[in-house]
Specification:
- The complex is a heterodimer of chains A (about 290) and B (about 325).
- Chain A is α/β, with parallel strands linked by helices and about 290 residues long.
- In chain A, about 40% of the residues lie in helices and about 20% in strands.
- Chain A has eleven helices and eleven strands.
- In chain A, strands 3, 5, 6, 7, 8, 9, 10 and 11 form an eight-stranded mixed sheet that branches. A two-stranded antiparallel ribbon of chain A has the order 1-2.
- With about 325 residues, chain B is α/β, with parallel strands linked by helices.
- Chain B contains 14 helices and nine strands.
- In chain B, strands 1, 2, 3, 4, 5, 6, 7 and 8 form an eight-stranded mixed sheet that branches.
- In chain B, helix 9 links the parallel strand 5 and strand 6.
- The longest helix of chain B has 20 residues.
- Classes of the chains: A alpha/beta (about 290), B alpha/beta (about 325).
- Chains A and B meet through strand 4, helix 6, helix 7, helix 8 and strand 10 of A and helix 7, helix 8, helix 9, helix 10 and helix 11 of B.
Chain lengths: ~290, ~325
Amino acid sequence: MNWLNKLLPPKIKRAEPGAARRSALPEGLWSKCPACEAVLYATDLATTFNVCPKCAHHNRLGARERIDLLLDAAGRFEIGAEVLPVDPLRFKDSRRYPERLRDATESSGETDSLVVMQGAIRSQPAVVAAFEFGFMGGSMGSVLGERFVRGVQAAVEHRIPFICVTASGGARMQESLFSLMQMAKTTAALTRLAQVKQPFISILTDPTMGGVSASFAFVGDIVIAEPGALIGFAGPRVIEQTVRQKLPEGFQRSEFLIEKGAIDMIVDRRELKDRLADLLALLQKAPAAA
Amino acid sequence: MKNTFLDFEQPIAELEGKIEELRFVQDDSAVDISEEIARLEKKSQSLTKDIYAKLTSWQICQVARHAQRPYTLDYLGRIFTDFHELHGDRSFADDRAIVGGLARLNGQTVMVIGHQKGRDTKEKILRNFGMPRPEGYRKALRLMKLAEKFEIPVFTFVDTPGAYPGIDAEERGQSEAIGRNLYELADLKTPVIVTIIGEGGSGGALAIAVGDVVQMLQYSTYSVISPEGCASILWKSAARAADAAEAMGITAARLKSLGLIDRVVPEPLGGAHRDHAAMAQNLKKALQESLRQVSALSTQELLDARFQRLMAYGRTKEQPVT
C-alpha cells in the first residue's frame, strides 16, 4: 500500500455476509484450540463461528462475523460508519494516539471498536451493535459512544429492539475523561428505548470489563453471556493486588456470574441466534417461529 | 490542626518552621520580633501563591488526596443544617464509604450524597478509603429515588479513588450497581448538582456524578483511571504517574476548557485543607448559584437539557463512507 492509499478513508463497505470472515481467523489452514489443544481446520472453525467443535471453547469473534452470526443476510445496513476518531487531548504515551489508531485500523480492518448494523433476526427487525476486540481491545471511546447512541436512536425511531454484543477491556485511556463520559452517554440513550417499550438485550462475551461492564452491559432487559467469558468490573490482577489473595477458580467467569445472580442465562454461540429470535418474539408478544 | 506539607511545599514548610520557632522564642523574649514574624508570614504567603500558581497535574493530584482535605461530612457540617443521615441499601448492608441523607440548605430541603474517606487509620478502614462496594451505590440510588419522589434536589459530593476492586464487590455486582445508577440518574426527575471535591476516580465517581451541573473544586481531579494505573498500563511503570496525569488532563482547569465540566470552585490559598471554613463558604456560594440556575427550569426542561448534555459528550469527526 502506498502512502496515498493510507490517507484515503478505509473501505468499510462490507455489509455483505461472510466478506470479513478472514480477519479474525488465524492464519493458515490449521489452528489449535487454546483450551483443548485439538488441531482444527480453519474452515471448520468458520462454520462454528470460532467455537471449538471438540471442546466447545468459545474463541473470540470479530464484530462483523458476530453480525453475520446474528443478522439475516438480507437487508442490512450499517449505522454510524461515518463517525471516526480524533485525538482531542493530543495524547502521547510511548506512542501517539493517532499512530495507535492507524495500527488498529490496519490490523483489524475497522475504523473503531464498534460496528452497528440494522437488519433482521429471523425476519424480526432489530439493530445489532457488536464490539471489535481486535481494535484497541474493544476500548470505549467517543466513536464507540456515538455509534452506540446512533444505533439506539435508529431502534427508537423504528420501534425495534436493540442488541449489543460486548467484548472490551474497558475505557480508552487515550481519550481520558471523554472516554469515561461515554459510560454515561451510552447508558442514558437506553432510557429512550425503554420509553418506547422496546427491548435492550445485552450479550456479554469474553472479555467484558471495566467501563463497558459498569455502564450499559448490565442494564439489559435480558442479559446473556457466552460460556466461559471473563466479565467483571475490576481486572483479576487489580483485585489480586488489592486483596492480596489468590482468586477462586472460575472467578468472574460466566458460570460464576449466573451463580451469583448477575445474568439471566448462558447461551452457546451456536444457539445464540435462535435463542435471541425466540426471546425477541416473546418480549414483543409475536407468535412463535415456525 | 497542624498543616501537613506535601513534597513540593517544602520551601513553605521550612519557612513556616522558622516562623513557629520565632513565635516560641518571642514568648519569653524581651525583644519584640513580631515585625519579623509578620514579614516572614507575608513571605510564606507569597511563596505559597507562587508555588500554587504553577502546580503540575501530578501536584494537584497530591493536593486532591491531601490527608487534611475536607471530606463530605466536613462540608455537611459547615454548609447544611438539620442533617439526618439515612443508612443502608435495604438488601445487604450499609456501606460507610458513601454517606447520605436529608438536610437543609438555607432552610430548603435537600438530599446530600457523597463519598466519605476516613481521617485516622480506624476510620479509613471503616470507610474503606472512600471506595464503595455495590451496596454503597445502591444506597445512593435509594436516596436519589427518595429525593425524586418528594421532588427534593440532590447534591452529590465526589471523592473516591474508585469503586472497590474486591472479590465481594464483584460477587455482589459492582458493574451492575454502577451501570444502574448511570441509567437512573440520566432520567431522575429532580435536579442533581454534582461537585468533585477531591478525587474523581473513574466509574466509582461517575456513579454519583451524572447531573445537571457538574462542578469541581480548583484542586480536585477527575479521570478515567488513576495516573498510577494509566502509567502502569501505557508506560509499563507506575513511576511515570506524573506523565500520565499530565497527558490525561485530569485537573479542573483543563476539564473546564474541554467543556466537560461547568464550573470551577476556587479554593483558599494553599488548598482547601488549609482553611476548611473558607472552602465551605466558597462551595456554599457555588451550590446556591447552581441550584438557582437549575430551579428556573421545569422538570421536563431539566431532563431534556440533561439528556442533551449527556449525548453531547465526546469528540469525533465525520467522513462519508466510500
